[in-house]
Amino acid sequence: MNTQPIGFIDSGVGGLTVVKEALRQLPNENIVFLGDQARLPYGPRPAAQVRAFTWQMVNFLLTKKIKLLVIACNTATAAALDDLRTKLTIPVIGVIQPGSRAALRHTHTGHIGVIATEGTVRSCAYAHTIQAKDPQVKVTSLAAPKFVAVVESNEAHSAVAKKVVAQTLRPLTHTDIDTLVMGCTHYPLLRPLIQNVMGEGVTLIDSGAETVSDVSMLLDYFDLANTSGHAATRTYYTTAGAALFETIASEWLNQPITATHVDITQQPQDVVTALPTTVVVASKNAGKVREIGAMFAKLGVSVKSLSDFPALPTVEETGTTFEENARLKADGYAKMLELPVLADDSGLQVDALGGQPGVFSARYAGKGHNDAANNAKLIAELAGVPAAKRTARFVSTLVLAKPGLPNQDLVVSGHVDGVIVGLPQGENGFGYDPYFYLPELGKTMAQLTPDEKNGVSHRGNALRALEARWGDWYQKG
Ligand SMILES: O=P(O)(O)OP(=O)(O)OP(=O)(O)OC[C@H]1O[C@@H](n2cnc3c(O)ncnc32)[C@H](O)[C@@H]1O
Ligand SMILES: [Mg+2]
Asked: In the 3-class helix/strand/coil scheme, how is the chain assigned residue by residue?
């Protein structure tokens, strides 16, 4: 049981022919419909553009928490169904397969006609789908591009409509076609005119109506049907003005319809990947893991570190720059773990020592190095250097890697300037913090609370750059 709405998309009002059937067959279901009338017609557009527009519609409907998507548009089905099915986690139903199946059920002569937009005809989607099921069947497709404009301008009952339909269908009238697929969801609004031209001997297939039977089956199959017993809600959106949409929709659906205008041009043109819920920090340094974990916690992302994977081999830091080492660690561990991995390579650059210890900061004291030995060596090397010449900088380079994509790492850096003092002060932080004095704060790094340190530190600055960019980067694939 699921009370979330079913989403319907179309380039315009045509998709309402599918909604009409849904209201009849699935009266308990909440429905959200979006018509992209501002960019209509889709038929003549290149497939890649139709796909991009379709994703924008879908991303809008996903904000309405739809449980199932119906592409109530043949052109969009032909251009985007496979892509949507691969990338979305909800069921996606197009109109072409149900329409094809119904046509095969009805034909006796083995000759099926298809009328559709230029895009759908060009894609050969109906011919391929029908002939994949029965190669003996002959399919004759005809583009009827003017039909959409007639329907969208609310002229379906006019003399113009009669003339356009008669002229367009003429090539099909002296054939042995006994079944005609209305391969555009706008066309059922012209059904009486089409039937009149084709004659009573030809069965018209309404792909959209057939589609709703598939929706009904899937709702049962995935246990998604709404059995709450509450009155169902129907919400209609259009990317153009609401007035004309409301007129056509109210008449077609036999009830007063109100629609809301929306702008979807800022929606992403492809799938929006969910951000990961866990990131592995590729570090054995508990101080770093704590600082990085604090930032990710604010974003609702939990952090693991290498201590959660004790059996992993160590990636050696053989690079000559912070970036090289951070890349080695991030890519190396991402490959082993097949998870998103963040590595930090950082260090202290002291001006009077020509930038040392730099990338050797962790290993400065050589064999048996630890924080105390590294600090002792630093102070010994700076013996006799006057206070004014003890300027230094902490640098942090962060690299975020996605498994399988080592060439797309996200790289950011941060630094903080300070002075190396001769006497240690403070108990917080780690490494060289007790000797790294921040003149503006009048304290060493080890005298700051964790939050205060993150607010000014090299790693805090790098993390802020990361925070600003990682969502986009992650979703670009
Ligand atoms: O490689 P991982 O496992 O991440 O841990 P590590 O300690 O070896 O990390 P690095 O190779 O990046 O070396 C960084 C060293 O620089 C120093 N350092 C880096 N950031 C620091 C900070 O915020 N405060 C004090 N010292 C820091 C400290 O000595 C670190 O051990
Ligand atoms: Mg290291």
From this structure: CCCCCEEEEECCHHHHHHHHHHHHHCCCCCEEEEECHHHCCCCCCCHHHHHHHHHHHHHHHHCCCCCEEEECCHHHHHHHHHHHHHHCCCCEECCHHHHHHHHHHHCCCCEEEEEECHHHHHHCHHHHHHHHHCCCCEEEEEECCHHHHHHHCCCCCCHHHHHHHHHHHHHHHCCCCCEEEEECCCHHHHHHHHHHHHCCCCEEEEHHHHHHHHHHHHHHHCCCCCCCCCCCCEEEEECCCHHHHHHHHHHHHCCCCCEEECCCCCCCCCCCCCCCCEEEECCCCHHHHHHHHHHHHHCCCEEEEHHHCCCCCCCCCCCCCHHHHHHHHHHHHHHHHCCCEEEEEEEEEEHHHCCCEHHHHHHCCCCCCCHHHHHHHHHHHCCCCCHHHCEEEEEEEEEEECCCCHHHCEEEEEEEEEEECCCCCCCCCCCCHHHEEECCCCEEHHHCCHHHHHHHCHHHHHHHHHHHHHHHHHHCC
